[in-house]
């Protein structure tokens, strides 16, 4: 099940409920320490030096407990009681060039500004530029607000305990949190809380898509129509089509503007490619994607009107991406038909008449307002920790992905993959699950590529999309 994103007070109540069952704090600390060690092993190599910074509280105990499971690493532990007195020893340990620092200085209980001595200590750790694994929360960061108490450690990975804390998904917290992971198998009772914000776990997607019955054919898996590509932007259409193929719908037809047709058609084989014309009829399809690469100034007005009419009146699922977002009328659609928009923060800001900074400052509210403005459409608000939801109901935070997705064409790949899934009748009945799956796979593929080839390109992303066996790279990349 998805994990709720919770507050500090809820975490405290969850712990109390656990202790009431007879579970001991010592056992939970042992399990947390094991999880921290497992994460540290992934972040380091054999015989690397790991430096554990342990404070006085439970976070310090969690960090110390990780040592017993790090036998394959060299480990130094600095128990920090007085940051000023311990600064010299810290410098000595950093002279040994640790591959990883495990941060167990402060937990979620910190609720005051740090002293000047602690500010100096934290600045010294950050200045060493070592990888940092934060236990539960980066030391100095408020887990409810996402704001530092004067300063906070800048973690490479934050392994939060039990469930994500609400402050850790706020934009101000991102430079300190780094990659957010969750240690949830630590001996706590099932979380007694629910809420509007949920954290997607890979286990939520087990069994999706379901196995295909043996007696089916291409007509069983839908037909995607894609309206994409213009002069100078034909690559977006090709990427969207290839990503749709990775979802394995039965058929794909790509309509592009006349000027881009030769460049697009020459790069696709199984995808049917036609020039878009005013008489084009997409209603034989089972889903329509519009927008990737329709950025040229000479995109014809009739095509824009065609997309607007599809959005308003088609009974088919319609996914709007990129330039098509600016053509959508802000009102309800006929019959509550399935609609999806996939803006990045800049596009969301244009649609809302605000700035990207304001969108990022309250991404959850931006998603709610966007969905309401466009007929309760599903919104995929892209970026770090992409969120998926509508004007009402739960919003899901996606944990997969990394900054190397910030390449031209990445969004076209995601839009095409979403369309390829929603075109399939067996998957369209659970649109939220299909969209979450697409978003997670998109990010997880980037993560897998990053582990094996740091200079991967978007063509590699689309080639490996949804591949459970690990990445391969295009020979030309």
Structural commentary:
- The chain has 477 residues and is α/β, with parallel strands linked by helices.
- It has 2 domains: 3-193, YjeF N-terminal domain (Rossmann fold), CATH 3.40.50; 218-464, UDP-N-acetylmuramoyl-L-alanine:D-glutamate ligase (3-Layer(aba) Sandwich).
- Helices cover 35% and strands 15% of the residues.
- The chain has 16 helices and 17 strands.
- The strands form 2 sheets. Strands 1-8-17-16-15-14-13-12-9-10-11 form an 11-stranded mixed beta sheet, with helices on both faces. Strands 3-2-4-5-6-7 form a 6-stranded parallel beta sheet, sandwiched between helices.
- Helix 7 (234-246) crosses helix 13, helix 7 (234-246) packs parallel to helix 16 (458-464) and helix 13 runs antiparallel to helix 15 (431-452).
- It is elongated.
- The chain starts with a strand and ends in a 13-residue tail after the last helix.
- The mean pLDDT is 95.
Summarize the structure.
By secondary structure, the protein is α/β, with parallel strands linked by helices.
């Amino acid at each position: 099940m998805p994990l709720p994103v919770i507050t500090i007070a809820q975490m405290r109540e969850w712990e109390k409920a656990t202790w009431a069952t007879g579970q001991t704090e010592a056992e939970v600390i042992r399990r947390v320490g094991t999880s921290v060690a497992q994460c540290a092993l992934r972040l380091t190599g054999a015989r690397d030096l790991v430096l554990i910074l342990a404070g006085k509280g439970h976070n310090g105990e969690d960090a110390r407990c990780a040592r017993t499971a790090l036998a394959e690493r060299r480990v130094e532990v600095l128990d920090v009681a007085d940051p000023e007195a311990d600064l010299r020893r810290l410098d000595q340990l950093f002279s040994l060039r640790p591959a990883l620092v495990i941060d167990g200085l402060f937990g979620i209980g910190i609720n005051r500004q740090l002293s000047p001595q602690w500010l100096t200590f934290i600045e010294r750790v950050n200045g060493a530029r070592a990888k940092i694994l934060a236990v539960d929360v980066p030391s100095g960061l408020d887990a409810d607000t996402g704001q530092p108490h004067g300063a906070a450690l800048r973690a490479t990975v934050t392994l939060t305990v039990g469930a994500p804390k609400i402050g850790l998904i706020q934009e101000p917290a991102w430079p300190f949190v780094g990659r957010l992971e969750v240690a949830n198998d630590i001996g706590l009772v099932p979380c007694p809380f629910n809420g509007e914000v949920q954290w997607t776990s890979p286990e939520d997607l087990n069994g999706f898509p379901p196995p295909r019955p043996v007696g089916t054919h291409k007509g069983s898996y839908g037909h995607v129509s894609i309206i994409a590509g213009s002069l100078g932007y034909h690559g977006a259409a090709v990427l969207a089509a290839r990503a749709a193929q990775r979802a394995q719908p039965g058929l794909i037809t790509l309509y592009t503007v006349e000027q881009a047709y030769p460049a697009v058609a020459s790069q696709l084989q199984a995808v049917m490619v036609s020039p878009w014309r005013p008489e084009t009829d997409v209603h034989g399809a089972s889903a329509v994607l519009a927008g990737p690469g329709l950025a040229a100034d000479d995109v014809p007005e009739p095509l824009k009107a065609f997309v607007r009419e599809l959005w308003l009146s088609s009974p088919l699922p319609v996914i709007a991406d990129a330039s098509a977002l600016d053509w959508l009328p802000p009102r309800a659609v006929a019959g509550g038909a399935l609609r999806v928009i996939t803006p990045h923060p800049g596009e969301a800001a244009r649609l809302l008449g605000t700035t990207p900074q304001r969108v990022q400052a309250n991404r959850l509210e931006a998603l709610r307002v966007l969905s309401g403005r466009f007929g309760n459409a599903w919104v995929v608000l892209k970026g770090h920790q992409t969120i998926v939801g509508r004007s009402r109901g739960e919003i899901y935070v996606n944990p997969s992905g990394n900054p190397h997705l910030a390449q031209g064409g990445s969004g076209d790949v995601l839009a095409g993959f979403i369309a390829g899934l929603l075109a399939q009748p067996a998957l369209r009945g659970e649109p939220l699950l299909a969209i979450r799956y697409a978003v997670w796979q998109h990010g997880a593929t980037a993560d897998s590529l990053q582990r094996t080839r740091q200079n991967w390109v978007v063509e590699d992303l689309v080639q490996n999309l949804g591949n459970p066996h690990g990445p391969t790279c295009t020979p030309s990349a």
